[in-house]
Fold each of these.
Amino acid sequence: MIGDFKLIIIDENLCKGCHLCLFMCYKNVYAISPEVNKKGVQLPFVKFEERCTKCGTCEVACPDQAITVDLPENWWMNEDVNFNPLFTRHGK
Amino acid sequence: MSEKNRFLPYLREDRLPHIFCPGCGNGAIINAFLAAMEKAEMDFDNIAMVSGIGCSSRIPGYLKCDSLHTTHGRALSFATGLKTANKDLDVVVFTGDGDAASIGGNHLIHAARRNINLTVICINNNIYGMTGGQISPTSPKGSFGTTAPYGNLDSPFKLAELVAAAGASYSARWTTVQIENLVLSIKAGLKNKGFSFIEVATQCPTYFGRKNKLKTATAMAAVMKANTVFKSAADRMSARELEGKIVVGEFANIQKDEFTENLERISVEKSGKKTLINSAYSTEL
């Protein structure tokens, strides 16, 4: 369901299907799967991976710690940097 | 980069998935706190968490640090005692709106008046979620609940303004939708020497949402985002325009004398080396 890439990983055991990631994502990367898993949850999945800017908002906003984004190591540790440095550096 | 979520090492993984309803904001606030703690470069082993009773007060049970689950409304009293006994601890209090505003209202304003070095994260979901949807002191006027079938007639408490007026050195209000600002605010609160109060307006789709025709978490988050007004804009708006809006921003950020430092100073002044605080345990410490 998730696909071959590993940019964004969604843990199927932790997700409860609140779909807040769809609301919080600024670039509309996610979509809702039509199938229901064994818990009765319609899992979100990554439909438009090329839109992702690795801002990491969905990772923080996910209430169930189910989303992992492949961020560069500890960019959030930098002083007074709240945005992804890659976002501004490449002008993407 | 590992394939593991970066917040999972701080959580008791055998207890997951946690008990909170789908769409509850408490999980996002755990993430925001942990991100803020990483940003502030604090020692996770030196943090002691205190909580009262309520949905939000279950948060310290999921975190791998020392925690104290206390009686209803008395989380700030226990935290004051803990901080006074050992002032090197970083005490963080997770409390709900019923816990902080209703039964523990006096503890809240007096902790703010003393300006003791605590970080209080008040999770305001506008309703008593754990006991079945009763109206809380912060429910907006006109909202429905189990105990208000014709709508709430009373005006709500404005907690962040109340604590700022009571004399806290840091007071802010954010929502779970503005998660980046919330992270920076919790970081500022952790670094601030003095009483730091961060009120977080969250969504409660199970009780508040179901009674107020906002059944999904997304609907609640969208309404919250639409009703948010920044403080600088709210200063220029009339009271009539501000009805039903959530004013976000920092309400106090000042420097004041701190309670435990005053106590330390006076005990050294009066008793010298034999301090009032830890004289009985000085050999053990």
Amino acid sequence: MKHSAIVFLALMAAAPLSTPLWAHHSFAAEYDSNKPLNLKGAVTKIEWENPHVYFYIDVKDDTGKVVNWAFEMGAPTVIQRNGWTRNSMKIGDIVIVEGSQAKSGKPHGNARSVTMASTGKKLGAGSSEGQTYQEQ
Amino acid sequence: MRSRSLIACVATTTLALLLSLPVSSAQAPAGGGQAGARGARGAGRGAAQPVAPSKPTPHWPDGRVNLSQAPGVKGFWNVAGGSPIGKGGTGLPTNLTLEEVPFQDWARALYAYRQTRGGLDDPHSRCQPAGGMRFFTVPNGMEFIDQPELSRIFIIDGENRDWRRIAMEPGRKHPSEDLLNPSYFGDSIGRWEGETLVVDTVGYNEKFWFIRGGLPHTRFMHLIERFTRTDFDTLKYEVTIDDKGAYTRPWSGGWNIKWQYTNYDGSPGGEIHEYFCIDNERDSADFALQ
């Protein structure tokens, strides 16, 4: 039992680092690695669906204006391998999101990781960033 | 100093566990043993790393190769990328390099252009079917359903719940060109050559990219695919691309596909899940802004 618990903890610790991905579209088609994001806000909506889980957070900018940002993650079964469940994030939770913004310039990003502000727990978001688009 | 040693010890132990103990007893599928050892959490999308020698290739009672589940062992083929070119990753050692692909000039130019676009124009990114050999690269699991009494084999894919039908009637011919409606998966005729299933397919449309990255093809594309289960855990996929519209000669490549004993997310089960790309497809609206 103790042994299983150690194995489980070890796997969970490494999971966010260990997910090779094949998104249904390339990262480069939609997002810009040169537009890094690190945003904190309250979750307003969660779409736990294929091909990508989406969630939305309200973020205050420097002037106090609230902007609703959309974030893409991997497919449900992909991020489940990183320790997510459909109940990991709830409406109203405060989260810190690291990722990259869409090339469109809209308040839309690809999440690389999500940290729960209340617990400090950080989960990988199944990003395809860094993946090449050639066949090899 | 003591705490640093403790941290180093814990880190080393964790790494050792990650490399050598990939599964808890709760995740072992029915039958356990070797199967359990490969059913680790995180063994989905290309991450499967066998830690013990595979069981031998399974066969049906009549001697045919079993390309699917075997009694008492759950699972599916974990298609997770793959390419007919390049020798890295799951690619076969006999694969061509990109430079060796016998492109016609227009096809080489189109491929280069598609690369500059970073996949923006890929129909699959708009949830179009993964036609041709791409069927065996998109994730979400794949299975063979062999029905010899009906002279057919179905190959089903978790990706959009697509499927291919392989006609196995001896002497079967493709429809004549005027009756062959272009499609994503074409008209497929199969036969066994010893331990290998050989599938001949024609009748493709030009509305898909047959592989991620965008190698061009035309309506003349003719694929000869060879499926060999080299051991229980490995399916060798080889394909010859014969397309007089895009290439100067037929050429071949392939990749290995690994068996997945657990569900896709690593939990026990070994079953393909539902995945419909169109369910919440929000990317194409963003593509349109570029």
